[in-house]
Amino acid sequence: MATNPRVLIIDDTEEVLSALCKYFDEQGYEVVSADNGLDALKLLEEDIPGFDLVITDLVLPNVSGVAVISIVKKKFPKVPVIAITGWGEHPEALAREAQADLVLEKPFKLPDLEKEARKLIAGGSNR
Questions:
Q1: What is the fold, at CATH topology level, of the domain defined by 6-121?
Q2: CA atoms 41, 54, 105, 98: torsion sign
Q3: For residue 25, which phi and psi values (nearest 5 degrees)?
Q4: What's the start-to-end Cα distance of the chain, in Å?
Q5: Average pLDDT, the chain
Q6: Tens digit of pLDDT for each residue in 98-107?
Q7: Where are the alpha helices (DSSP H) in the chain?
Q8: 116: which residues sit within 8 A by CB, 6+ positions away?
Q9: Which of 12, 21, 28, 87 would you label with 57, given CA atoms 20 to 30 Å apart?
Q10: Band (97; pLDDT cuts 50, 70, 90)
Q11: Rg of the chain's alpha carbons, rounded to an integer?
């Protein structure tokens, strides 16, 4: 029996984080969330089963989303990362440089995000 995909969602805007978590939970994902980069990195380090996907905002307190992406790609190279941003081209270029698998600009539609998430998880599942 396949387990539900585990996703770590990181965003410092409460409404966005809440909406993303609720949506992915309703779609059958096991959701873990953080509202800043530092907490997200702690979760990644402490989480034994690991995550199938990380979704992170680029502009975060403590540790930036770009730094989170870089660290995830170094320590957990099989875990796909989706970067989400409302800040146009500069952070987007940084996210690509940090090797995010996908960069989506806010506002985006939740079903579109989930469809991309499913594709990335199917292509890179390592559990």
A1: Rossmann fold (3.40.50)
A2: positive
A3: -60, -45
A4: 13
A5: 90
A6: 899 999 988 8
A7: 14-26, 37-46, 65-75, 89-97, 110-124
A8: 82, 102, 104
A9: 28
A10: confident
A11: 13
Q: Answer for the pair 75, 44: CB distance below 8 angstroms, yes or no.
A: yes
> Could you give the 3-state DSSP secondary structure of residue 54?
strand
Q: 86: Cβ–Cβ under 8 A, 6 or more apart, which residues?
A: 59, 105, 106, 107
Residue 95 pLDDT > 90? no
Q: What is the pLDDT of residue 126?
A: 44
Instruction: Identify whether the C-beta of residue 103 lies closer than 8 Å to the C-beta of residue 83.
Output: yes
For residue 37, the one-letter residue type is G
How many CB atoms are located within 10 Å of the residue 69 CB?
26
pLDDT digit string (tens) for 41-77? Answer: 999 999 878 999 999 999 899 999 999 999 999 999 9
